[in-house]
Amino acid sequence: MIIAISAYGILTFLAIIHIILYSSRPTKSLSWLLIVLIFPFLGILFYVIFGINRRRFKFFKLKETVKRKLYNKKYRDELIQEQKIEFKNRKYIRLSTLLKNSSGFVTQPSNQVKILHSGKETFKVIFEELKKAEKFIHLQYYIFEEGELFNKLYDLLKEKIENNVEVRILYDAIGSYSLRKKAKKKFIDIGAKVYPIMPLHFGSFLFTLNYRNHRKIIIIDGEVGFTGGVNISDKYIKSHSELGIWDDTHVYLKGPAVDSLHRVFIKDYYFASNQELLLKEKYLPGIKQQGTTPVQIVAGGPDTDHPSIMQQYIKMINLAEEYIYISNPYFIPNSAMLEALRIAALSGVNIKLLVPKKSDSWLAKHSMLSFFEELLFLGIEIYQQRNDFLHSKVIVMDGEIASVGSGNFDHRSFEHNFETNALIYDPKIAEEICEDFIRDCEDSELLKYDTYINRSLQRKLSEGIARFFSPLL
After folding, report:
1. Residues 136, 142 contacting (CB under 8 angstroms)
2. Who's near 88: CB < 8 A, 6+ residues apart?
């Protein structure tokens, strides 16, 4: 007993010292201090797994992170054929420059872009394009789930492999935890190369558990690409629970931006398979102009020097002059994001926020709700989608620039997950997304400040407790 108490005291002391020295924000530091003190041993374990900022503390920069950074230095510019784009709009220049320096990808001109507004539309277009594949198909998803779509994909890929089309598949080991070995083996048996991303192995457990690959990417013949928020799961095409259908947005790309998106996949595939480096002309066939829309791929993750996804969102909020509309299922802003919204709202920028009324996580939902009172007080309009489960990660600014991707407005997407967004510099696309956003708001419930402040004490307590744990989200 004395040994256990002594060990607890020493570990708690070390954890507190580390939180004070290395935590990035006072509010986050306070949350972790309380978690460590309230939950003996368990709180320390949570902090070691979920709380340590591995960008700043070199001792915890495990081998995987170091290898990925070395990859960036060695291979990022290999075979890249840049086309320079000269923006006249200062907003475009400032945002594009930030993300080039932060994420590593330039804005590529002359793309064809199509916004896919639902799971049904997304998979209709995806399967149409997969049927056209002649050389290779590369797929990467956070959730690979058995069902109708899974079986349809299997049948199509089997036919393609029989016609000498190469197929590579990546899936996140935690996001696709329900995927049975038998189901994976089906794809392997037909000749697909299938790998989990960061599986839970002894020795790398601290890294792999907290740092998930949340990307959704398809590349077809190096010419067509898809990214956004939709996973391979039947929940996007039909209702399986009280949440209803998962309502999401995806984007179809054809043109130079596909090269950037493909490089994100190639890097992840290299580290998941530990076998192939696909930086070859066969897989990166060069830039071909396909349209008129400039697109910049934003890739963020714990292996980068900067939190690119967070910086993208904050910069868009800071640049907004007329309005900024945000659709996101997990709106749990950190202090920097909250201050950006506060400044924009007080500056007269019209801000609308669309979130789900239902949620797949009690903790995430109530943590999100805890921010609403202040946001409503600032004049920010908050809409809760009544029907189905809103899962889109969309932001549109001033009818000029729009973002569609996998990045949420939470600590996990900003600091821990590997994410990918497509940033689209096109008024027509921005207006299309804006119109869809407004239609969704019209079918949703508008929260009122006077009503919201009178919610029950029990509700406020639930929100406070959930917000306390927001660093884990």
Report:
1. no
2. none
22, 462 contact by CB (below 8 A): no
Cα 52 to Cα 40, 76, 197, 211, 411, distances in angstroms: 18, 27, 21, 11, 12
What is the spatial distance between Cα 271 and Cα 75, in angstroms, rounded to a whole number? 13
pLDDT range class, residue 57, cuts 50, 70, 90? very low
Residues 151, 433: Cα–Cα separation, whole Å = 31
Q: Are 246 and 119 in contact (CB under 8 A)?
A: yes
Cα separation, 218 vs 141, whole angstroms: 9
Q: Which two tokens stand for residue 321?
A: 């002059």
The fold of the 64-80+110-292 domain, in CATH, is Endonuclease; Chain A (3.30.870)
Q: What is the CATH number of domain 308-472?
A: 3.30.870.10
> Which residues carry out catalysis?
214, 216, 221, 391, 393, 398
Report which DSSP code applies to 409.
B
Q: What is the pTM of this model?
A: 0.88
CA angle, 232 then 110 then 230, to 5°: 10
Q: Sort 100 into a burial class: Cβ within 10 Å, 0-12 / 13-18 / 19+.
A: middle
pLDDT digits (tens, 9 = 90+) for 384-409: 998 899 999 999 999 999 999 999 99
The H or E element containing residue 423 is strand 419-425
What is the location of CATH 3.30.870.10 in the chain?
64-80+110-292, 308-472
Smallest CA-to-CA distance from 225 within 194, 192, 262 is with 262
Question: Alpha-carbon distance 148 to 133, whole Å?
Answer: 21
